[in-house]
Predict the structure of Peptide/nickel transport system substrate-binding protein.
Amino acid sequence: MKRLLLPKSAFVALALSATALGGLVHPAAAEEHALVIARDMDVNSLDPARAWCDTCQIYNTSVYEQLVTLDKDNKVQPLIASSWEVNKEQTELTFKLDPAAKFSDGTPVEAKDVKWSFERLKNIKGNGAFIADPISSIEIPDTQTVIIKLAAPNSEFLNQAAAGFLGVINSDVASANGALSDATAVDKDTSENWFLANSAGSGPFVLESYEPNAELRLKRNENYWRKAPAIPQVVFRQVKDAVAQAQMLQSGSADIAMQIDPETAKTLEGSDIVVDKVPSYNFVYISLSPGAKANTVKLTPEVREAISIAIDRTSLIDFTVGGAGRPIASPIPLGFPGGDGHEIPGYNPDRAKELLAAAGVGDGFTLKSIYPDMNVYGVDFSLMMQKIQQDLSKVGITVELSPVPFANWREAANGDHIPLTAVFFAPDFFGTSQYVDVFGLSEGSTWAKRAGGENDPSIINTETGKLREQALAAATPEEAEKLWFEAGDQMAKARIIIPMVSPDLIMAHSPSVKGVRYSACCNLPLAEISN
């Protein structure tokens, strides 16, 4: 789980003293100034093979580079690889590296670095290792050629190659500082602390310093082999509260605020701050667990459907994000293959009562709800669950709300399971297989376990896994799209995962800042920004 992202600051670094801002003015260019980003940083690591957070996604694609990247339309574009070929079976990809590519120390990026980095990701066995798991072997016939062989057809692997986890590391430098790529890496790699103070990538920025729960500083890679970024330095400031982020924008002490919610955004109206609302690929959902030990009634398909249509999604979206979001029917993001066109369940409490009566629970029952005590993508989970509690009470269902820290939620979800919960999801790459993997209810999958499939095998779906394999082997994107849609339709009809809203992303920034955009691979592409 992840867990995907600006006032008046024309001269932020010049308007405040160098002492107050830690010397943000680039010494070689007085007219240049740092880009200050206010956000709630969730950094768990700065090692590309271990990092697992939204801030990490920005870091991994700014300091390191991938073989390819995605443009604003999610089309694959060259990066370290200048060209590539995919065989007809979609089991082998051959990448030709750009001979101009070089690391921040000036040494060339070579095929051995790609092989080492990908194998290390797989063998470190961190959260992002699933992207490398399909790789069966990597061949490097020369310094500029990488041949990746997959264990099964995978039409999405080229898109996956743009993910931050597959950043290419300078293998010589990292190895000299305790990094390993072989099968012993999971136990014997000792480089994680080194990565907290150093970087070894070919990206437009390099790590300058990191102070946990306070500040992350990047500086321009003076040896960057492509067009140099316009900004000399990027400073991420740890600011948890959306109101505090907005105040930093208004005072000029931040250029970008990344977690402004709709209500806070209203306070910026009438100022010169740019507030753009753009559709996101993130979504918030509730989930039902038929196999939870705390269930007081059997959560049959009819009962699950009743719960779904007893929730007024339109008013929920208005209540939680002020209407700044889209309803979503299937646990595949709108805009992803197979995600569009699913029918949004209509609000129908009368029909819900009929279904509950037919299931023998028309007199009502109680649902226990444990959920993370969080505000994610501008959605306050407690407010959302209170709204759902009110809606379900109208059809005779009493919901007992128990907000808990995320770690406690995870323990409950994976332990005795939770009858009704709320969670969130953001993409790790532009591709639909990740959603079928997590939400498809195949035996052994994440939500087959969390929904209590071992106690109620009726929820296990044997078809979504087959559809996934067929889509990944599809000859054309159009054929794959149909298969992904069918998988999405099955996931929606199971009503185990019931999406509530895909919140808009609010991009708030100083009017002097240009090039801010949301990206499926990179979250916020720093190299495109100027101030």
